[in-house]
Design a protein that fits this description.
The longest helix has 26 residues, at about 5-30. The chain contains 14 helices and 8 strands. The termini are far apart. The chain has helices at about 5-30, 50-60, 85-95, 110-115, 130-145, 150-155, 160-170, 180-185, 185-190, 200-205, 210-225, 230-240, 265-275, 275-280; strands at about 40-45, 65-70, 75, 100-105, 120-125, 170, 175, 195-200. α2 packs antiparallel against α12 (about 230-240), α5 packs across α7 and α11 (about 210-225) packs across α12. The strands form 2 sheets. Strands 1, 2, 3, 4, 5 and 8 form a 6-stranded parallel beta sheet that branches. It is globular. The chain folds into 2 domains: about 30-130 and about 195-245, Rossmann fold (3-Layer(aba) Sandwich), CATH 3.40.50; about 130-185 and about 250-280, no CATH class.
Length: about 290
């Protein structure tokens, strides 16, 4: 990232909130945005977070929100290293009223205490672990040169050898990444949490309209808030808002892409490392896949 790009990005972060607020004030003919319930869109990394972000951006067109935050609230810093709970809590508390938040946060007691406040709406997006692994390898190898595993992955001879590292994890030479089973401990904590609607990436891709209807039902049923835009208008707006190719991390946006990359050796390695993970998540009926 060169200096000009960085300056433009900083400038956009500075001016975007005011610009988006003015646009929303014009759209909704109001000066404040306190009516609609606070919403936070959360995702496991490489699980369709930017797809969820596009849905949140669509919400600003069917409900009176000022805008969606440009930057996610992260558990892991973009340049590597885990952020403190104090930093994450400060970010959550700093979300302005009438602004939609999103990010990659864990189900810690502090985060749950904030998100489970009465009247709040929470979504959590997850994805087939096999596709997540494939997406992670491509991202760390080709798209994120500052990723902690970028150099290691590029030193390996092929995709298959990188995928093996992703499945089993690594803890050496300052590099630490848990294996596939460990990565999903946090997902199960969200699945077991109340006051959150858990979404599958696959449903946003393959069952889009019914999933979007379910999200709007969840907002209304959990808060009592009546969405002002009729469903017959709201759903087409949200469907149009979802454009995977506009994500800067877009590669294929497909479901089941793992089949093109997993060999029989990878399958065995995955089963040994993950156990019944896919059955527990509902992606397979048994381990004979």
């Amino acid at each position: 990232m060169n200096l000009i790009t960085i300056i433009k990005k900083i400038d956009n972060r500075t001016t975007r909130p005011a610009r988006k607020t003015l646009e929303s004030m014009w759209r909704w003919k109001r000066l404040t945005f306190n009516e609609a319930p606070p919403i936070f869109g959360n995702s496991k990394p490489k699980s369709g977070s930017h797809l969820l972000l596009q849905v949140l951006n669509g919400f600003t067109q069917i409900m009176p929100y000022a805008y969606t935050q440009a930057e996610p609230i992260r558990t892991i810093r973009y340049f590597g290293g885990k952020r403190t709970q104090e930093e994450i809590s400060a970010d959550l508390n700093a979300i302005p009223k009438g602004v939609l938040g999103w990010g990659y946060i864990e189900a810690t007691p502090e985060n749950l205490k904030f998100l489970n406040q009465p009247g709040r709406v929470n979504f959590f997006n997850y994805r087939d672990p096999r596709d997540v692994l494939v997406s992670h390898v491509f991202y760390a190898t080709d798209m994120h040169p500052l990723h902690q595993l970028h150099e290691l992955y590029n030193s390996l001879p092929d995709f298959g050898s990188r995928l093996k590292v992703a499945i089993n994890g690594i803890d050496r030479d300052g590099m630490r990444m848990v294996g596939v089973r460990g990565r999903y401990d946090a997902v199960f904590r969200w699945l077991d949490t109340g006051n959150v609607m858990c979404l599958r990436f696959e449903d946003l891709i393959n069952n889009r309209e019914s999933t979007l209807n379910g999200m709007l039902d969840y907002i209304e049923n959990s808060t009592g808030y009546k969405i002002p835009t009729p469903r017959s208008e709201a759903i087409p707006i949200l469907v149009k808002a979802i454009q995977p190719r506009k994500s800067h991390t877009f590669r294929g946006g497909r479901t089941g892409d793992w089949r093109s990359h997993f060999t029989e050796e990878h399958k065995k390695m995955f089963k040994d490392a993950a156990g019944n993970l896919l059955v527990e998540l509902g992606y397979e009926k048994n381990n004979d896949w």
